[in-house]
Amino acid sequence: MSFKKQLNWRYATKRMNGQKVDETKFQNILDAIQLAPSSMGLQPFSVLVIKDPETRKKMAPVCYNQPQITEADAILVFAAWNNITKESVNTYISNIADARNAPLESLEGFKQNILGLVGGKTQEELVTWSAKQAYIALGFGLFAAAIEEVDTTPMEGFNPEGLDEVLQLDKKGLKSLALLAVGHRDAENDYLNGAVKVRRSADDFFIHI
Ligand SMILES: Cc1cc2nc3c(=O)[nH]c(=O)nc-3n(C[C@H](O)[C@H](O)[C@H](O)COP(=O)(O)O)c2cc1C
Fold first, then answer.
1. Quick check: CB of 178 below 6 Å from ligand 1?
2. Distance between CA 58 and CA 174 in Å, rounded?
3. Residue 35 is part of a domain; what is its CATH number?
């Protein structure tokens, strides 16, 4: 399998056909998202996996009625933590200790580093920082889906406050950042199916020093 061929196969799908995505492939995409790296490994965001058709119908108006919202098999909502609490840092440190069978004391310096970094940011800065981590995971999801020949659309075309309201994200301590529609292209009705990729030339894009 050539990953470059797959990256040319994928495109931001505008129309999907409602077909279900194979469960193993779908799980592989979720695994890739979960395995994405994040600054200090904290993963300060969550991903909602929305398959429920009723919920997606409610989401459509705040997503400017983009058809993928209801035509995809699932919508993944990447959402930043509203707050990075001392408890969430403690949980992360305990996870490392458990996974690597390491004494908690050995992680104290690392924990203080995280708390120092987090403590030095305003809430707005923390959400921006979390968003950067979430977008790396979004990219991993896009890449994995391409490898699996599953179609996707990364989406920022929605009203975040409206979506937070529909999904009651505030109660979960979350703020929506970006969506990933996951499904299969409607090859006949999608005007972008088969369109040539448009990217800046490598000469313009890369700066070799
Ligand atoms: C962060 C992000 C947000 C995007 N938002 C939308 C969107 O709301 N709706 C949509 O149809 N496409 C959306 N796109 C798709 C881009 O328009 C598309 O990726 C770009 O034109 C490159 O084309 P390609 O992905 O088909 O290669 C978004 C892409 C990214 C990365």
1. yes
2. 18
3. 3.40.109.10
Residue 153 Cα to ligand 1 midpoint, Å, equals: 6
Instruction: Tell me which residue has its CA closest to atom 29 in ligand 1.
Output: 154
Report which residue type is found at 30: L
Task: Identify the CA nearest to 86 among candidates 46, 126, 115.
Answer: 115
Closest of 76, 78, 90 to residue 42, by C-alpha:
90
Report the C-alpha gap between 22 and 57 in whole angstroms: 22
pLDDT tens-digit map of 85-96: 999 999 999 999
- Looking at the structure of the chain, the number of domains it has is 1
Does the predicted model carry a pTM greater than 0.70?
Answer: yes
Parent domain of 116: 3-205
The residue whose CA has the least distance to atom 27 of ligand 1 is 11
